[in-house]
Amino acid sequence: MRVLVMLDGTVVDPGTPVIRVDDLGITRGDGVFETILVVDGKPRELGPHLDRLDRSAAMLQLPPPSRPDWEHCVQAVLDNWRGGAEMALKMIYTRGPEFGDGTPTGYAMGLEIGEKVLRARQTGVAAITLDRGYDPEIVSRAPWLLLGAKSLSYAVNMAATRHAESVGASEVIFIAADGSVLEGPTSSVVLVNGRTLRTTPPSSGILKGTTQGALFRAAERAGWVTKVEPVTLAELREADALFMASSVRKITRVHTLDGTALADTTDLREELNALYESEY
């Protein structure tokens, strides 16, 4: 089951060609996107996702996305969805055709949640740490590197994931040149020590996690301490538990890190996911 709606509200057969071959989102990766989890017809964290789309577009100097148009586009996807209770909703916004009139290309797609994702939610994932190749101090000095933008240029992220799979893992945690923890290719890193949750700051050149944010809000109400601060690789390895948070996978347990099995935290996974679900 798939649903495709263009930014102008037109519902299109997802099997119909609608993107020009010279669209800069295809030829250069010149665009931004967001992925939203929809449950029972209700998109989760739509506002924060649209805020992040705005921020990413501004970093790429794209024309400001029209929030009313995107809200209408998203609603059209929801209205036409005939699949299961959960859906992954992707919003794509590119610079448009290279030889066009400058009008961006925008559309939203509704997609079924894959079996691999559903399985990872239950069983957890094996992760490896990989060097991301930059020092967080460069973020403010070189904004043209687009660190922290959710751009369509995901070749490095996908290459890292393929490398992980080639060595028997399924997830990556990127490490900066100074040894600090960054994020996963498609997720935020959450460490647990006692009743404290920690994640890394956007100032290090990573995305501000929407799912992680929802978890932290719920955890604070339940009496947990939450911290957004730099985390070292040593602290990552010494944590009581380790999780990856993303819109579609929710709060996923890391059961193996760099080939070392971690403590069984299945009960904690259930507790954290219950906290996260309490936001909705």
Radius of gyration: 19 Å
Please trace the helix and strand order, writing H or E for each element.
EEHEEHHEEHEHHEEEHEHEEEH
Q: What is the number of beta strands?
A: 14
CATH architecture of the largest domain: Alpha-Beta Barrel
Low-pLDDT stretches are none
Can you characterise this structure?
With 280 residues, this protein is an alpha+beta fold. It has two domains: 2-113, D-amino Acid Aminotransferase, Chain A, domain 1; 118-277, D-amino Acid Aminotransferase, Chain A, domain 2 (Alpha-Beta Barrel). The chain contains nine helices and 14 strands. The chain has helices spanning 24-27, 46-59, 67-80, 115-123, 138-141, 155-166, 210-221, 233-238, 266-277, and strands at residues 2-6, 11-12, 31-39, 42-43, 86-94, 105-111, 125-131, 171-175, 188-193, 196-199, 225-228, 241-246, 250-257, 260-261. Strand 10, helix 7 (210-221) and strand 11 (225-228) form a beta-alpha-beta unit. Helix 7 (210-221) packs across helix 9 (266-277). It is globular and about 55 Å long.
